[in-house]
Write a structure and sequence with these properties.
Blueprint: H1 6-34, H2 44-69, H3 77-91, H4 97-123, H5 127-132, H6 136-163, H7 171-188, H8 199-219, H9 223-252, H10 259-279, H11 287-318, H12 321-347
Length: about 375
């Protein structure tokens, strides 16, 4: 089977992430509906509370991953329709608890399956995608663990409905739950959602991804691959620079020690955008493209070095950790908004590869 183009790989991953995020937002709402419906199941309420807390954190982790990845597309029509059907069942006062739990469990299983698919797509993608998806391992592990937990609740609810008694706890089920719980705990303590990090760490993650993209463009042997990678780079740089200006620069320009550096950084952003506009109209297989790409890399690298070596040092000394975390929240929110506006236009500039191959159709 012929491998998909770089463009289509990224669109396939963007589609899966959009579906996962869409369902996850619904799951967060369903969790509040299910709370209070399991008073007769031992530890049921406690398990649902832990799942609800994890789901909110997973949603924020997803937003961090998607913002780092950069490409935004709409969820599939089927995903929206399926989620709406489950939402209707959850809101139906005439539906039994086991029916609601069954529908909920189906979505949880689907989430875990699609998380695995997204992880596999990332494994066969370029290095910048792998880096952007780094925190996703924690989300995937959490989803897998929750499938086991929810299945246990469904089993207990069904037995309670049919017999009025709780089933005995099996050794196999206990061991299975323990294994996935430990695995999830280990992975989830490593990564944090973006809105729990300092904004300086978020900016450094973006800088690392951009350096990776420059290397990938340089190594790409096929002009069409260079073109696709350039448009990913352009999307990342435009979203990063605008969000950085609006969230970080505007708040920190008051520091006289770095006012001149901030003024230079604004100018460097403008220069960077101008060079990218030029590159957008140059054949990716030409020497001119290579030369202008080197110019862009030089501008960006000098800009990044100045930020990390000088500007970040002053910001750390002047801004509290709590404020840096709040700035991270604002930066991610703003960057995501910019990506949603830019993605349809940027992606359309990627190299055409003949008939469009649609992303894998998953629930």
């Amino acid at each position: 089977m012929k491998s998909l183009s770089e463009q289509n790989k990224r669109l396939a991953l963007a589609s899966e992430l959009a579906d996962i995020e869409w369902r996850q937002r619904a799951v967060v709402q369903w969790n509040s509906m299910l709370r209070g419906l399991l008073p007769n199941i031992k530890e049921g309420e406690e398990i649902m509370k832990k799942i609800a807390d994890e789901d909110e954190r997973n949603l924020r982790m997803l937003e961090t991953v998607m913002t780092s990845f950069g490409v935004r597309v709409e969820p599939k029509v089927f995903t929206k329709g399926f989620t709406d059907l489950v939402s209707q069942r959850m809101a139906d006062s005439g539906a039994q608890v086991v029916e609601k739990l069954g529908a909920y469990a189906l979505v949880k299983q689907n989430q875990a399956m699609c998380c695995t698919l997204a992880h596999k797509i990332a494994q066969v993608s370029k290095l910048d995608v792998k880096e952007a998806m780094g925190l996703f391992a924690g989300v995937e592990s959490s989803m897998m663990k929750q499938v086991s937990q929810v299945q246990g609740l469904v089993e207990k609810a069904n037995v309670m409905l049919m017999t009025g008694e709780l089933p005995p706890s099996g050794v196999a089920g206990t061991v299975r739950d323990a294994v996935v719980s430990v695995a999830g705990a280990v992975i989830n303590t490593v990564g944090k959602p973006g809105d729990e990090m300092s904004v300086l760490n978020i900016l450094k993650m973006d800088h690392l991804k951009v350096r990776t993209l420059f290397n990938e463009i340089e190594k790409a042997a096929v002009p069409l691959d260079k073109n696709d990678l350039f448009y990913q780079l352009r999307l990342d740089l435009l979203a990063h620079s605008e969000a950085e200006e609006q969230v970080v620069y505007r708040r920190c320009q008051q520091f006289t020690e770095v006012k001149e550096l901030f003024d230079e950084s604004w100018s460097e952003h403008d220069e960077m955008r101008s060079v990218m506009d030029i590159l957008s109209n140059i054949d990716a297989g030409s020497q001119m493209f290579t030369d202008r790409m080197k110019d862009l890399q030089s501008i960006v690298q000098e800009h990044v070095d100045k930020e990390e070596d000088e500007i970040f040092k002053v910001i750390r000394s002047k801004v509290s950790e709590d404020e840096l975390v709040r700035m991270a929240q604002d930066f991610i929110t703003r960057k995501a908004h910019i990506q949603r506006a830019l993605s349809p236009h940027i992606v359309s500039g990627m190299a055409p590869r003949g008939p469009e191959v649609p992303p894998p159709a998953m629930m």
